[in-house]
Hints:
B: 2 domains, 2% strand, disordered C terminus
Amino acid sequence: MLQLNQIHKTFYPNTPDERQALVDVNQQLDVGDFVTIIGSNGAGKSTLLNTLAGTIIPDEGDVWIDGNNVTGFPEQKRARYIGRVFQDPMSGTAPGMTIEENMMISLGRTKRRSLFRGVSKQLRERFQEHLSTLEIGLEDRLNTKVGLLSGGERQALSLLMATFTEPKILLLDEHTAALDPSKEELILKLTRELVEKHNLTTVMVTHQMEQAIDFGNRLWMMDEGKIIFEANGADKDRLTVADLLQNFQDIRGKKMASDRALLAK
Amino acid sequence: MVSALYGAVESGLIYAIMALGVYISFRLLDFPDLTVDGSFVTGGAVTSVMIVGGVDPFTATLAGAISGFFAGCITGILHTKGNINPLLSGILMMIALYSINLRIMGQPNIPLLNENTLFTTISGWWEAMNLEAIFMAPFNWLGIADFAPRSFYTLMSLLVVIIIVKKLMDFFLRTEAGVTLRATGDNAKMVRSFSANTSLYIVIGMGISNMLVAFSGAMIVQHNGFADINLGVGMIIIGLASVIIGEVLFGKDKIVRMTLAVVLGAIIYRIIYSLALRVDFLEASDMKLITAIIVVVALVFPNWLGHSNAKSQYKKSKARATEKKGEIHLASTKSNS
Lengths: 265, 337
Ligand SMILES: Nc1ncnc2c1ncn2[C@@H]1O[C@H](COP(=O)(O)OP(=O)(O)OP(=O)(O)O)[C@@H](O)[C@H]1O
Ligand SMILES: [Mg+2]
């Protein structure tokens, strides 16, 4: 489904600010794989997701999605395959437009946008059906401006919009980090449900080790642009937070630098 | 007085088309577009040259509008492909169009008084169907013939035009493509993440905006009976004033209401204009100053009144979100130490 071949990315090469954000990343995901990524600040997690999404083009290496080499595709072309939820709840929705209109935009991800078609009754019912699965009452507020929703509600909507058209890959970059704990729980629960419902191949970055262990069937640990540790299937299920910290120390010879990673509840 | 009022409504209806164009660029695409000052004249120039050349006025008007579409697209391309800031792209295009307009016209002024224009043609049909008497009847019956306009045909035909334009716009802005265009000005990052080419939407949107502006210019020259190279000076501010007056007085969230508000805003602007001209110590040339003051007041007052639309609310909630993140960071450093 997803293949990363020898991906390299250096920011500001040959200057004092040079920063190797990705170093020789080789990975492959199968259909339905759910990988969680952890790592300290600046490890390259977001850069990796951005290379998948096409907002960053790697210096070397190529990206394959569903048998297509998408390395040279601009972001909007790649988005045909990809659903994304951003960290900032404000990023994933258009605030000045209604819930219904936002849903309509997300519907266009997989096909040409029509110059003649608006929202039909059937479409509205389909939107409501999907919105009702969030169980936060958005289905009754189709004509509410999204800018008036709370951060949690907006993030739930973003998640729905990114998933209900069944992308080949779902990218989640700390999509709960800006929310308070109760809202975070809601979004995590919805993430689990929606990924399962649509059997989505998912890449999720998180700062909480427990989440990383709890979710998905695979785990990558990143540091200084490399994937330094990975665990799959049954191995991953047996992991504990202590194991991860120990692993990190063994491999890197230093303590996990991330402050937030230790905040795992 | 009465005839001045009808005159104001007539030109208000024509300027309303321009204001709808400005609404698309300024409000929907969040693109303060100064091309308007140039493309308004381009529409008028192309149309009047063609009319003088004997082309039928409908074709000439259509050609004028299309010329504006291309001008707008170029501004959009300057911004999206050339990475030039929106304001500068518009200014560059406005300056370039000044020369181009002069080339098209061949002289700074083209009289159309004895030509066959949209209005003379419609007036011909109108007389053939004897509609004037029908519209005049209720005024005569009520004994208020003095309050009737000099003639109905201009007013009625302009009303039909503006209704058609508004309906088409309402329809388009609610289609999949139209909704995406509006979202492009709202959150381009999000629109790209849903596989829409925002550059293309900006270019086409700017094209449509300036097409409406040029269409308005094409009508104005026929209404005035002449085209002039300086017809467009300050047009963007007139457009803005109309949009803002409309929003403040009649604005509602729904797009159908917004387009109506813009049309009414344009008419009210023209009425204010004609009233101001009747004040003794004011000259016609003072009108630009008055327009600028109207825009400033309209921009500043809503803020003072604590008026908040979804956009400012969005900014507020964004500020709140960053505050919150700051707190989390603080908390995490504390728990570490
Ligand atoms: N657009 C960019 N330009 C320059 N440097 C960048 C850019 N994006 C990321 N970097 C640098 O690349 C490195 C990896 O950044 P990245 O954002 O991928 O880290 P991360 O693992 O997501 O960290 P965090 O946990 O803080 O989100 C950092 O040193 C960062 O400063
Ligand atoms: Mg990151």
